[in-house]
Amino acid sequence: MSITFTTARPAQADGDFRLWCCGECVWPIFTSFAEAEAFTATVTDGTPPCGQTPWIIPVEEHDRPMVNVSAANGTQILTLLGLLPTAAPDLGVPTAEIEADVMTMDFFRHGHEQVGEATAEDFLGRILLAQALTGRDEGRPVDRSGRITDCGRPRGYLDERLCDLIEIAEWARSHQQVVVWS
After folding, report:
1. Please, what is the angle between helix 120-133 and helix 157-174, to 10°?
2. Residue 50: which domain range?
3. Do 98 and 42 have their domain in common?
């Protein structure tokens, strides 16, 4: 499982669709979804060099920046940014248990999802505050417990991801979009 940070996709008007399969194949741009769908029907017999059936996706005016991290690292980032709940009184779960669960996948069993959105300004402010208040990321060692292995995190990894998130926040601000994560 992972968490992806990016900007909200703008509403897509009819037009500007393309096909996507392996990332290597080159497809024309279509002016409507129906046109792309009709073309897709002609290539489902493995005509693409990669042999995969292509997907129809909207062409966006700009390439949206995106950062994808593991669920454990994403949870740590959301915690640094103050975007995770610290208590769940409506669920009757004590704060200490929630905080312990944040570093494990038990977080989901309490009904929390790591999904949300923030304005670009709010998100950027949270990143800058986290950078100012936290020291250098010391990383986390590999931890093996039974059949579960937490691969850890190299030193400085969260610092690098926070810098990547600044780029997302600045892009969102310049394109009047919100930052989203899921």
Report:
1. 150
2. 17-58
3. no
Q: Is the pLDDT of residue 90 over 70?
A: no
pLDDT tens digits, one per residue of 94-150: 444 444 444 444 444 444 567 889 999 999 999 999 999 988 888 888 888 888 877
Which residue carries 């100012």 as its tokens? Answer: 132
pTM, 2 dp: 0.62
Query: Is residue 2, in this structure, part of any structural domain at all?
Result: no
Number of domain units in the chain: 2
Cα(160)–Cα(174) distance, integer angstroms: 22
Residue 152 domain flag: yes
Please report which helix (H) or strand (E) contains residue 11, including its range.
none
Which whole number is the average pLDDT over 20-30? 75
Question: Domain boundary residue among 58, 77, 110?
Answer: 58
CA distances from 105 to 74, 98, 134, 167 (A): 12, 11, 24, 28
Angle at which helix 157-174 crosses helix 71-80, to 10 degrees, equals 70
